[in-house]
Amino acid sequence: MNHSFHPAPGLSNPHVQTIWGRLTRSSHRSPIRRECLLTPDGDDIVLDHLVATPKGPPHYLLLHGLEGSSSSVYAQGLLRLLAARGRGATAMNFRSCARNPENRNQWLPNRGSRLYHSGDTGDLDWVLSSLFERTGQRPLRVLGASVGGNVLLKWLGEHPDDPRVEKAATMSVPFDLGASARHMEQGLGRYYTRIFLATLKAKVQQLAARSPEAARRFDLSRALAARTFYEFDDAASAPIHGFEGAHDYYTRSSSLGYLDRITVPTLCLNAVDDPFIPAVVLDQVRQVIDGSGAPIRLDVTTRGGHVGFLAGSLFRPRFWAEEHLVAWIDAP
Questions:
Q1: Interatomic CA distance for residues 72 and 61, integer angstroms
Q2: Any idea what DSSP says for residue 302?
Q3: Residues 6 or more apart from 240 whose CB is under 8 A from it?
Q4: How far apart are alpha carbons 55 and 194 in whole angstroms?
Q5: Could you give the 3-state DSSP secondary structure of residue 304?
Q6: Where are the domains of the chain?
Q7: Residues acting as catalytic residues
Q8: Which of 111, 172, 220, 310 has the fewest CB within 10 Å, making it most exposed?
């Protein structure tokens, strides 16, 4: 157990930790250069690069969480910290997740016949190859939050000893997607689920309207009626992306089954009170790490919520997790 995180007075509740930063942080964006990278299947991946000239390698890649984007406050926080250290960095927007830089409430839909999912490592692999070539084949360092961290850990397990990545760090990774989906069917988890499903349902409606091919692959009416992640994923996420159903999707996409194959130094930061993740999953992660000897450091705090970890004070919070991850991953 890591006890170096102390929540700000008045902000110890896990739901306050999860929500407060999103409500109170500045929406100011780091200066970026936007690029639309064409994928092999003819779709776009939107990348946002820091415009400041870096002092030198390594280059950093950031992955956001479910229904987030490079505009998410934690992604912007990480970019600011890296810019202050003189590092070059790129934030990857998963398909359908990029926002209009002039209006953060406006999504920029992708063009293809699929979206993204919580274990989608193909697009990450494509982006890593592009950045690796541009940086003169110098290895990158990658940070992932929540579902973005799950994608990152899964990719690391799929690509042991890959020269493109030399170090990785994550926070608030669900690790077991099925366990998290079930966990969020209880208590206030239902509130968060409704928020996520609102935008996911809008995206599958748009997908069905623009792509007859995609519309034939999934049950739109059942997806729109879904009240849980399992119902939505079984009706839409799984069939759109080639899985047999929600159970197959969760089993094959959860990073827990890939941790023992990771070979690069990796930091995973999680809180016991994360409202999105049952604490028992963290025990399972620890068992895998201890049993495999994978070079993964698991830092577990008692409090922190989901991508929260607010220290300092109520109206002048410090975003401890971002500082902790950047200090660790930017060390030699």
A1: 15
A2: S
A3: 114, 115, 117, 204, 207, 214, 217, 218
A4: 43
A5: coil
A6: 14-176+257-329, 178-253
A7: 146, 274, 306
A8: 111
DSSP H or E stretch at residue 63: strand 59-63
Superfamily of domain 14-176+257-329 in CATH is Alpha/Beta hydrolase fold, catalytic domain (3.40.50.1820)
Which is more confidently placed, 291 or 55? 291
Cα separation, 276 vs 304, in Å, equals 12
Between CA 158 and CA 64, with CA 332 as vertex, the angle to 5 degrees is 45
Cα–Cα distance between 146 and 306 in angstroms, integer? Answer: 8
For residues 15 and 21, what is the distance between their CA atoms, to the nearest angstrom?
11
Of the candidates 268, 312, 331, 266, the one whose C-alpha atom is nearest the C-alpha of residue 85 is 331
The pLDDT tens digits of the residues spanning 262-299 come to 999 999 999 999 999 999 999 999 999 999 999 999 99
Percent of the chain's residues with pLDDT above 90: 88
pLDDT at 224 over 90: yes
DSSP H helices, the chain, are 14-24, 73-84, 122-134, 147-158, 177-183, 189-210, 212-215, 220-225, 229-232, 238-240, 246-253, 279-292, 320-329
CA 276 vs CA 130, 176, 281: distances in Å: 33, 11, 11
What tokens were used for 267? 């930091």
- The Cα–Cα gap between 110 and 4 comes to 41
pLDDT single digits (tens) 66-124: 999 999 999 999 999 999 999 999 999 999 999 887 776 777 888 899 999 999 999 99
Task: Please say whether the beta carbons of 92 and 45 come within 8 A.
Answer: yes
Nearest CA to 134 out of 200, 15, 49 is that of: 49
Higher-scoring residue by pLDDT: 22, 202: 202
**pTM passes above 0.70:** yes
Supply 224's token pair: 């729109």
CB 83 within 8 A of CB 89: yes
- What is each CA distance from 245 to 136, 167, 218, 232, in whole angstroms? 41, 33, 10, 10
